[in-house]
Amino acid sequence: MTHTSVSGTARVLGAGLRALLVLTLVCGVIYPLAVTGVAQALFHDKANGSEIRDGGGQVVGSSLIGQRYDLPAKDGQETPAPDLKWFQPRPSNGLGSNSVNTQYSLILSGATNRSGDNEELIQWVKDAKAAVVKDNSTATHRVRPADVPADAVTSSGSGLDPDISPAYAELQVHRVAERNGLDVPTVDRLVAEHTSGRLLGFLGEPRVNVLELNTALRDLTGNR
Asked: How far apart are CA 152 and CA 167, in angstroms?
């Protein structure tokens, strides 16, 4: 009786061990390698983070995550001023800083969670519109408040939107041209070359990826 019980237990343990080894091999080795292989073969760019490279082949970021283009912060300055030689992205509202590991400086992204009639949000939009008009007006081109699109003064839900509307990109053309010593038609062509249309011709809105546009601008002007 005891011998039979021990033999049965050994068979069950042996079967369990074999199942564990087979499942580990299939689910832990073969399946991940197969998925990785398919992803690399069919979706190489997406599988590797949708990286954007400059003319020299150096990775400068991801097309999925927006970046800010600011001047170095001055002493006592809470918010650094934008570097106006670059196209600017949508506003981003950090919800706080990294207090867990202070070795790394992180900005936590997210929406403002304020309603459309919130007085603070309304003031933010007014201030942002005034800044857009001021920053993008040049000696030969005046931006009107009515020309400022919504995405120039409001952040996205994540705060990390990598794209802006063609209208906001066009609004910045004269300023970028002046700051980089370029003519307006050249910068206009650069914007047109980096404007993506609606998905399948009818989904979403036309958009301009700011990192891709600024990378092309840097390659054109030699800015580093």
From this structure: 9
Q: How far apart are CA 32 and CA 212, in angstroms?
A: 31
- The pair of structure tokens assigned to 190 is 């650069």
Could you tell me the pTM of the whole model? 0.77
Asked if 38 and 72 sit in the same domain, the reply is no
> What residues does 59 pair with on adjacent strands?
53
Residues 6+ apart with CB under 8 A from 200: none
- What one-letter code names the amino acid at 138? T
Rounded Cα distance, 64 and 53, in Å: 13
* 166, 149 Cβ separation under 8 angstroms: no
Same domain, 106 and 215: yes
Maximum pairwise Cα distance, the chain? 101
* Same domain? 42 vs 106: no
Read off the tokens for 31: 């399946």
Enclosing domain of residue 1: 1-48
67 and 60 Cβ atoms separated by less than 8 Å: no
- For residue 55, what are its two tokens? 């003319």
Q: Do residues 31 and 39 make contact, with C-beta atoms less than 8 angstroms apart?
A: no
Is residue 150 located within the same domain as residue 68? Answer: yes
30-75 per-position pLDDT tens digit:
999 989 988 888 877 777 778 888 777 788 778 888 888 888 878 7
Name the DSSP class of 65: S
Query: What is the full DSSP assignment across 195-215?
Result: EE--BTTTBS--EEEHHHHHH
The CA distance from 170 to 177, in Å, is 11
